[in-house]
Amino acid sequence: MHDHVGRSIVLTGATGFLGAFLMVGFLERGYDVTVLGRSKMDIKLSDRLSNLVRWFNIADPGERLCAIEADFSKRHLGLDDEVYSHLCAATGKIIHCASDTSFTENNRARVMATNVNSLPALLEFAADAQTEHLYYISTAYASGMCEGLCLETPITSECFTNVYEESKAQAEGIITRYCENHSVPLSILRPSIVYGHSKTGGSLKFNALYFPVKSLSYIREIFIKDIIDQGGERSRKWGVSLGNDGILHLPLTVYLGYRGSVNLIPIDYFVEAALCIVEHPGSNGIYHITSDNPPDMATLIEYSERFLSLRGIHALWGQVQRNPTPNPAEELLDRFIEPYRPYLSDRRIFDRSRTKSITSGLSSPLFTYDIYERCMNYAVDCDWGKKVSSPR
Fold it and tell me: Spelled out in words, what is the top-level CATH class assigned to the domain 5-201+262-293+347-385?
């Protein structure tokens, strides 16, 4: 455990997507990082972190990276008194990134247990450690079901798209009240939808942006196989054909409630913005780490058709009459993207005034086809996460 409090970070969620990249960002800035977490499938936390260090292909941090097996359902994180006291004394800043990101209502109990019910032990630790600052990684979508400008202010909405949004909003409220009552300096970071590294394509997670593309790839392979191996009779029935140029004509309509955008940011922008906020003195407040120029679904469809050698996909917005007899591709894609549908035509605009002032105007890069292609090539190369592939 570390004794250099001024450069000491205690991080939760370091084995997740955002947390892993944050961990590496802190290590590369020279911080000592203590990770609170747990074993998984009989793999110790320390071994999980070692695997990540190898995945990122960074120099062995040695004693600057410390793993502590912690249980957030128990007082003092389930640690004995001596270990807990030493942890408190060595703690500088705390970054709480651990989260269950499931949208599914069937997982409500699990999501609430992780995102809300585990907070008392964390907050007690922050107070006992007299932490220099607590940073909570929330989500921009904790703003709930609303339209228009969302300010970098406490949440007022009581309506949410799914249990994940609801849990993060509840967590923000609990953490804010506790920190106010116990004089714990607090900042809340609200990222939007995070995808892989804009320069390397590297990622540890392949949902959100990736899932609709993966779904289209899967659907494409079904029809290609039918055309090549079975003569394509079923494909022709639905107007699907393979051109001599290798492009699959796939008549497919995506129905969205209204015209909006998809607020995407790369993981490298998220990390850089988060580090700026953490390293800025007196950075109490709420910060939207989001895009000022998010693409719309038409752009993402154009990119996906180009990447997957498809033609014939289009989006319809508003209260339009749906085709009463959708083709199999439409039925499949509709089912695949249902959890993400609210985020594919989002009318929320996230104010970033405070974030820009702290980060010297740092902004998310424009989501170009080059970035899209780089990220999707990486995803395909590692079979959408099934294979380990170093991003560097």
Answer: alpha beta
